[in-house]
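Journal club side-thread
Mid-discussion, someone asked how the predicted structure for our own chain would compare to the paper's figures. Pasting it here so we can look after the session.
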Amino acid sequence: MNQGKIRRLKRIFRDDNRTVVVPMDHGVSIGPVKGIENMQGIVTSLLKGGADALVLHKGIAGLVDNGKAGLIVHLSAISNLTPNCQNKVQVCTVQEAVRLGADAVSVHVNIGAQDECNMLTILGKVAQECEQYGMPLLAMMYPRGPKIPNEHESVAVAHAARIGAELGADIIKTNYTGNIVSFKQVVEGCPVPVIIAGGPKTDTAQQLLQVVYDSVEAGGAGLSIGRNVFQHKNPTLMVKALVSIVHDGASVEQALKISGENR
C-alpha cells in the first residue's frame, strides 16, 4: 500500500484499526429526511460524539466543516424516485475528492442487481484512480437482486464483500449477517477491513448496539451507520455509545446507558 493511502487511512481508523463512520449521503437517495435537514448542525453534533469519519456527497462536503473527522466523499448516487433505484451511477471523480481534501472515497455496488456489470465497471475504474492518487477506497457492497431472497444471508454477504476486495477496495461496508459465527466467516473471507451498515432505523437502541457489539466480536472493524445515528433523539450520545463499544470495549449495557436510552 502506498504512503498516501496509509496516511489517509490513519485519519479514518484509530490505532486499534477500528472506526466509527457516519454516512450522510441520504439526501440524494431519499431526500432531506429527519436528522439531515441542517447538515452543519448534525455534523457538529456527531463531532462532539467522537465520530471518526463522515460520508458526504461532494456538494455538502464543500459546504460543511468536518473538524478533525475523516472525510469520505461518496462517488455513487441514484434517487428512490427512479424506476431502477438499484443502479448506482458515478457522480463524482477521485480528482474532485482530492480537491475537496478527502481522506477516502466510497462507491456503492449492488451485487446481483440487473446493472451489476455497470457498477462493477465503475468500481474497477475508481480503484485504479485511487491507486494513482493514493486515495483509500471504501466499497459499499450489498447483495441485492432477483436471485438473492435474503440480503443478510452469510454466503451472499461474504461473496459481495470478497468481490469488493478482489477489485481493489481498501475497506468493505456490507450487511451484518445476524450472528457472530456467520459474520466471522464474512470477515475471514475478506482480506481487507469489514465494517457493518446500519440499514433502516432499528426499533430500539439496544438492538442496534447488540448488532455492533456482535460484529466487533466477530472480527469486524467497526461500522458505517447513518439513520440510526442522525435520527436518534440525541446523535451525540449515540455516537459516544458506538465509540464506547468499538474503541473502548464497552458492553451493550454500558453503551446503552451512555446513549441515554432505557432499552
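Post-session note: Residues 3-198 form a domain with the TIM Barrel fold (CATH 3.20.20.70).
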